[in-house]
Design brief:
2,3-Dihydroxybiphenyl 1,2-Dioxygenase, domain 1; 18% helix; 152 residues; single chain; four-stranded mixed beta sheet; 3 helices
């Protein structure tokens, strides 16, 4: 069994870093806390992502502080990636959820800015009791970001 201390970060591969920064930094308000460019000369970088036996991977990483959680955005220029289906019921789908104070207000602000979502804000109920209001919004690459407001 792994002995863990804490979660370090959540990572997403994006198709266009500047467009993703407009979403995560400028719209969601996350703060850039670090950045790195990984060149093809760095063999460890190709190995760690499983790009064996070919020229090294080339990618840019930007780290964001998302209210105490770290988000890592990676944009690969080599090898070139391809979009994936992002239906929440498909095996391998991932999302990150942020607890917010007023999900209805945030949802209204995001939709006014043209941010897509899977639905309108929904009431989440367990055993008939309202426990939260939640919605999945989509980043520029269609990655699901859940926003949840806990009901006391």
């Amino acid at each position: 069994m792994i002995s863990r201390t804490d979660v370090d970060h959540f990572g997403f591969t994006v198709s266009n870093m500047e467009r993703s920064l407009e979403f995560y930094r400028d719209i969601l308000g996350f703060q850039v806390i670090g950045e790195a460019a990984i060149s093809a000369d760095e063999e460890w970088a190709a190995r760690i992502v499983g790009h064996y036996g070919q020229p090294g991977a080339v990618y840019r990483i930007v780290y964001l502080d998302a209210g105490g959680e770290k988000i890592e955005l990676e944009e690969y220029t080599y090898p070139e990636g391809r979009p994936m289906d992002r239906r929440v019921w498909d095996v391998g789908h991932a999302h990150i959820c942020f607890q917010v104070d007023d999900v209805h207000r945030i949802y209204d602000e995001l939709t006014a800015r043209g941010i897509a979502s899977k639905s309108e804000v929904q009431e989440a109920r367990l055993n008939g009791k309202l426990v939260s209001y939640s919605v999945y919004v989509l980043d520029p690459d269609g990655i699901s970001i859940e926003l949840s407001q806990i009901v006391e």
